[in-house]
Specification:
195 residues, mainly alpha
Amino acid sequence: MSKWPMLTVAGILVIMSYCVFTFTSLALFPGPFSPVNNWLSDLGNSGYSPRGAAFYNVGCVLTGLALFPFFAGARKWYTSERRRKTLTMLTQVFGFIAAFALMMIGVFSEDYGELHGLWSDVFFVFNFIVLIFANVSLMTHSKFKRPIGYYGIVVAVINLLFVASSSTPLLEWLTVFTALGYVALLSYNTFRMPA
């Protein structure tokens, strides 16, 4: 495990943290809950879910923390090409901002109203920017699997639709879980990179 790239190990932690805490919160939600009618953040609302809210909010904070080494680990994709290295570094910077915003979503749950909405907006806007920069910097990289890039474009389009409309919970769910899929694929690609 010590030989695994930092991005890969952190990617696994990102996926596990978010899924374990989200689905624990979902299991404790009193009453019906569906991606069609409920925002993910409803799971962190103590008024809606007194027993499960803390799980979702802690999960957001831990997932955000795990995203820091995930993006730091993207340095494995640096090359001697100045343009590509710069784009990868910008991906990391924007990723750190998205990671911090996700932590703040957990700290300032739906109970905090507009403050929660602000951090949610910041997270989804920077998530979109990260997807764009990651794909632009990696798509022509000799060690990057192109189908992952095509998938990343689809994820970015879903994210953009959500940012542009913000009216449908289902789009939020699709944005979050397809982004987690991108984390999984990039983690695998990084693990399988030739030395």
